[in-house]
Design goal:
With 692 residues, this protein is an alpha/beta fold. It has 3 domains: 6-418, TIM Barrel (Alpha-Beta Barrel); 422-621, Rossmann fold, CATH 3.40.50; 634-688, Golgi alpha-mannosidase II (Immunoglobulin-like). α2 runs parallel beside α4 (85-96).
């Protein structure tokens, strides 16, 4: 059972304390070369295959392999009986061939015997139905039985391999919370009540935070509180918000328990694989980051989204932000198609290399794949792999070899960091709260608005860092421009930091439905946009969201959708007005001089082209130049060593050749050039001349 240490974790994650510093001299993952790796599931194959696998891994340049990720039933086939013979053989085989081991704890899915003996560990959904074994992660994160048995397994694994020379990294569980992040069982209810008691101290304080005077919800004791299970009407939004906070903390506590055991037996770095993606919102990874010796992420192109490549870029930038700007590890991505989308789109020739290097451009110092050998059975048998069903005669295998050679050519880039003058504020808590029930428009979704503004920045050729709303003043001061999309929930201290950033000379662009509530989801009275009224010099009396399919026109010629509001300027100047729709003549975009800086407000959802024009205008006022040659289909990102060489990545997703004036040495081809020429679908990386 966890306690709410979120504030301390957030403080560490946002610049007041360097992530990891509170643990003293904890080991750091700092490779001298790009790691190139994969998940390996040898338990799916006869041992006669293993020797062939390691020979091919060496041919492909694979040097980091994750094993024992789903190994629980293999190493503990019966309660308390451990058999490490197969895992011993695999770890020794990899080490003998010079391949480092990313050793999983094996706790990501309990074996059938555990849920048979203890069905009370199974997760329960909001409607009271149980989720059964047969898939993965069939456990309640709060279950004391699961925690006891899983930690007993970790103790055995850590004791056995803690000093093994082949182990380079520890991999706790796997994608914690991917399927079971929210459990509503009675065990969870008890843990939730303990978390609330630690957070609020008294039931009166809880009642005040949750506004329980509404609908006769006042509690007389913590024992009366339940998780926000399915109800016959709308649920209490503050209760739902706190349940998200609790659930994120509870999963983090699982990680901490395993990591503590590992660290008692090993001085090797410890991490787990995050899921900074469009479909996973239940873990606040900014709060998790201080507990990681290296931040690792899993990412797969999501073809359910309108722009999968833009989402990849955002996820990579966000992962780097969670890592405090330091290099990070891509623990999983795919050579081609996945198996879990409605249509699993295969990657076209050259696409694997291009999207892999898009992660490297944005700070990844490791590229790992799920998985090594494509499974012949099981739920993921149609998921692509480094070694596909077709074997080494396939195009995929040849592209794997090409990617490995390309990474070898880029080794001097390792350890460098991304440089940006623009930051975008991203908040898991706002995501949880803004997408709740009974909001002004169900068509306004937090992540879509974040993606919209990020997409505009990317299309404008602006490199972007992603920061949490509580980023420390010295962190915000690094940037000339700050973009704040739909920051619905914001604490007083967070709003004050953003306002001080502007007063000190920064340029902030804030979009609609921001500053509306405090940390308890309590509306800030006096008019919208609440916490940002003074900084933006505007006040709004009422929201006027648009019906689906409706658009409005601005006097700049822009088209907008989703949202309008009854906006009045106080000290701001109107930049654009509505021409039609429910509020003709009312300001839609404003600009306000505040202290030494400027606050811009966008009170509608602009189309991409005009959102791009706007961010270019704000950037120009802030003195920021777009990256050379960058645009919607051409990513240009700079990484640099402190006081040393800088590298420009040019990633061409278009069907046309592009040329970028950047004098230097192109690493992938070993050529000197004044202008880099990038064919359609290709990537070039230039070590820039020092005179740039």
């Amino acid at each position: 059972m966890s306690t709410p240490g979120r504030d301390a974790a957030r403080e560490a994650a946002t610049g007041a304390v360097p992530p990891g510093s509170r643990a003293g001299a904890r080991p750091r993952w700092a490779p001298e070369r790009f790691a190139f790796g994969c998940d390996y599931n040898p338990e799916q194959w006869d041992p006669s295959v293993w020797q062939e696998d390691v020979v091919l891994m060496c041919e492909a340049g694979v040097d980091l392999v994750a094993v024992n990720v789903f190994g629980w039933s293999d190493v503990e086939p019966e309660p308390g009986r451990f058999d490490f013979s197969r895992l011993d053989a695999v770890v020794d085989l990899l080490h003998t061939h010079g391949i480092g081991v990313n050793l999983g704890t094996g706790t990501s899915s309990p074996p059938p015997w555990l849920s048979t003996l203890h069905p009370e560990i199974l997760p329960v959904m909001a409607d009271g139905t149980t989720r059964w074994p047969g898939g993965r992660q069939a456990y309640c994160p709060s279950s004391p039985v699961f925690r006891e048995r899983s930690r007993a397994l970790v103790e055995q694994v850590a004791q056995r391999y803690g000093a093994h020379p082949g182990v380079r990294l520890w991999h706790v569980s796997n994608e914690l919370g991917c399927h079971n992040s929210l459990c509503y069982c009675d065990v969870t209810a008890e843990a939730f009540r303990a978390w609330l008691s630690a957070r609020y101290g008294t039931v009166d304080a809880l009642n005040a935070a949750w506004g329980t005077s509404f609908w006769s919800q006042r509690y007389g004791a913590f024992e009366q509180v339940l998780p926000p299970r399915a109800t016959v009407s709308s649920r209490n939004p503050s209760q739902v918000l706190d349940f998200h906070r609790f659930s994120s903390d509870e999963l983090l506590d699982l990680y901490r328990g395993e990591a503590e055991i590992i660290r008692s037996h090993s001085d090797i770095p410890v991490t787990t694989n995050f899921m900074v993606t469009a479909h996973q919102r239940d873990m606040d990874y900014f709060a998790w980051a201080p507990d990681m010796d290296v931040v690792a992420n899993d990412h797969y192109l999501d073809h359910r989204l309108p722009d999968p490549l833009a989402e990849l870029a955002f996820a990579a930038d966000t992962t780097r932000g969670i890592a405090g700007g330091r290099p990070w590890l891509l623990m999983e991505h795919s050579t081609s198609a996945v198996n879990w989308q409605p249509v699993n789109v295969a990657k076209s020739p050259g696409e694997m290399l291009r999207v892999s290097l898009a992660h490297v451009a944005r700070g990844a110092d490791a590229l790992c794949f799920f998985q090594w050998r494509a499974s012949a059975q099981g739920a993921e048998k149609f998921h692509s792999a480094l070694l596909p069903h077709a074997g080494t005669s396939s195009r995929t295998w040849q592209e794997v070899l090409e990617l490995s050679r390309t990474l070898d050519a880029l080794q001097e880039v390792v350890g460098s960091t991304v440089r940006s003058d623009v930051a975008l504020v991203f908040s898991y808590e706002s995501w949880w709260a803004a997408d709740g029930e009974n909001r002004p428009s169900a068509d306004v979704r937090y992540l879509e608005q974040v993606h919209a503004m990020y997409g505009a920045l990317r299309a404008a050729g602006l490199a972007v860092d992603v920061v949490p709303p509580g980023a420390a003043p010295e962190v915000l001061a690094r940037y000339r421009m700050l973009v704040v999309p739909e920051l619905y929930l914001v604490r007083d201290t967070e709003a004050a930091a953003i306002e001080q950033y502007v007063a000190d000379g920064g340029h902030a662009l804030v979009t609609f439905f921001s500053g509306i509530v405090d940390e308890d989801d309590r509306v800030r009275l006096g008019g919208y946009p609440g916490a940002f009224r003074d900084m933006l010099g505007v006040v709004s009396d009422e929201f006027h969201p648009l019906l689906p399919g409706r658009t409005v026109t601005l006097d700049t010629g822009a088209t907008a959708s989703l949202w309008t509001e009854q906006l009045r300027v106080v000290t701001a100047k109107a930049v654009a007005h509505h021409v039609d729709g429910p509020l003709p003549g009312v300001p839609a975009i404003t600009r306000n001089e505040h202290g030494h800086g400027t606050g811009w407000y966008v009170a509608t959802a602009l189309d991409l082209d005009h959102a791009t024009e706007l961010v270019r205008e704000v950037a120009a006022h802030a003195g920021i130049q777009p990256m050379p040659g960058a645009g919607p289909q051409v990513e240009v990102v700079r990484r640099a060593h402190d006081g040393g060489a800088s590298y420009l990545f040019v990633i061409n997703h278009s069907d046309d050749v592009v040329e970028v004036p950047v004098p230097g040495h192109e690493l992938t081809r070993g050529e000197r050039a004044e202008t880099v020429r990038v064919p359609a679908g290709a990537v070039r990386v230039v070590r820039e001349d020092e005179t740039r």
